[in-house]
Amino acid sequence: MRDAFERRDADAAGRLGSLSVPRAGVTVETPALLPVINPHIRTVEPSTLEAEFGAEILITNGYIFYKSDEYRQRALDEGLHDLFDFSGAIMTDSGSFQLSEYGEITVTTEEILRFQHDIGSDIGTPVDIPTPPDVSHERAASELATTQERLELAETVDVGEMLVNAPVQGSTYPDLRERAAADAYATALDVFPVGAVVPLMNAYRYDDMVEVVLGAKRGLGADAPVHLFGAGHPMMFALAVAAGCDLFDSAAYALYARDGRYLTVDGTEHLDDLDYFPCACPVCAQRTPTELRETDDETREELLARHNLHVSYRELRTIKQAIRDGDLLELVETRARGHPAMLDGYRALLDGVDQLERNDPVSKGAFFYVSNESAHRPEVRRHHDRLDRLAVDGDRVLLSEGEENSRFDETWRLKPPFGPYPAALSDSYPLTAEVPERLDRDAYEAAAEGVRQLVEANPTVEFTVAHFEWPDDVLESLPDGVEVLALGDDSEYPDSGGQGDARPREANPNGDEPKDEYVDGDEDGQ
Ligand SMILES: [Zn+2]
């Protein structure tokens, strides 16, 4: 059992937690952002990050210090905390990035880990092999074997209280990511960066990124803190958190600022194209884009970097509150509308619905159906999966979007996207969902899938579906033997005197039937 990471709250696969960093004597709340500090180019001073932005942790490159004539000895003499005037936690990278960029580095895992320890790093990194996307499976597997050797070597290096990263590689192969993660998790190392995803993010391949993360998460225990290495654009934080990432590092805030680029949660703007700032941070509230363009280069770069940090930290706070409120997936779904590639990422996340469903809390505040993707959320899957455990009373059962009908032995509610459920569950999450009046196909199809699962679990019962204007082909997809009744202005239940006239979306929740009649024991209290 690892004790560095504690999960305090969860939503989808996202966690609100804390990472204890013993060498720094601090506890970092996650999800957390680690601004990247280049000792040669300090766009925003680490002490400013701590004082003005509340940064609890940052990351710098141990290999740059190792190679630097200017900083190597100073770092050894003073330590990173004094050098940066920063009292939070400091993570260091090992030079793996330089290895991937330039093909070689001149340091071993043992040397660089000891060096990271000696300059006062709180979380160090071995020299792993960052395998790029789309290489052959064979190459990815072979490089993974080298990375695993380095991790096992790293375990043997005495680094005192310094935590050590165990990077998870495996290119674009979810099976290799899963294996790599399981092997890394089997070591005594502490933090699990999902590596070499920057090329995926730069190419807007958010769906591949999500598949890689979900692969890695399958190999890791719930007590493993996960770092999405190199991920610094706030537009994808919510998606990555929902997939199970806890740490992000951002060089983007400074690199983008250098190019005059302005980060938002929907993407990237260019300062030259802005007439108005869509942001209320101190940088944006106190000047217009024109005024910012007219400042000198150095000031402009720093102010843009500050805006980029403000928007990044604000998004993390928004995400944490969403986890608290249980509406992280609503947030991801909203962010997914900012860019088509983000929508692909969200759809890839929902393709992993079984994996999400295992982590997703059974009860939350409210389910808001905000787009057709909502029909694919884990709560819908969970409802379908439990339909075979809900007792059906009687031989003839009405599944109704309208009112109850006494001609049947029992009436169940019918509500897209969930499908059928006993009236007694009406007040339970997620069946209290707020759903729009004008539904989409995905909602009807998901509801029909619920009907199918209920029919399959109760083969001897005669079911009748009473619906308001479901699409014909969805009705045709219902199992054989299911009767269909159209509700609406001019339709009536046979023998029932026009109970279909009204158009309530839900039947009366205080029906005649006793509340617990349909519910089996383990469904109580949800
Ligand atoms: Zn701003």
Question: How would you summarize the topology of this molecule?
Answer:
Blueprint (H helix, E strand, L loop, with lengths): L4 E7 L2 E8 L4 E5 L1 E6 L8 H8 L3 E5 H6 L4 H7 L1 H5 L4 E5 L2 H7 L6 H10 L4 E2 L12 H20 L6 E2 L9 H13 L5 E3 L3 H5 L3 H14 L6 E3 L8 H7 L3 E4 L1 H7 L2 E4 L2 E4 L11 H4 L3 H5 L3 H29 L2 H8 L4 H12 L1 H7 L18 H9 L9 E5 L9 E6 L3 E4 L18 H17 L4 E6 L4 H5 L6 E4 L40
Parallel strand pairs: 4-5, 4-11, 5-6, 7-8, 9-10, 10-11, 14-15, 14-17, 17-18
Antiparallel strand pairs: 1-2, 2-3, 12-13, 15-16
Describe this structure in words.
There is one protein chain. With 526 residues, the protein is an alpha/beta fold. It has helices spanning 46-53, 62-67, 72-78, 80-84, 96-102, 109-118, 137-156, 174-186, 198-202, 206-219, 237-243, 252-258, 282-285, 289-293, 297-325, 328-335, 340-351, 353-359, 378-386, 441-457, 472-476; strands at 5-11, 14-21, 26-30, 32-37, 57-61, 89-93, 123-124, 163-164, 192-194, 226-228, 247-250, 261-264, 267-270, 396-400, 410-415, 419-422, 462-467, 483-486. The protein contains 21 helices and 18 strands. The strands form five sheets. The protein has a six-stranded parallel β-sheet. Strand 2 and strand 3 (26-30) form a beta hairpin. The longest helix has 29 residues, at 297-325. Zinc ion (ZN) is lined by residues 277, 279, 281, 283-284, 307, 310-311.
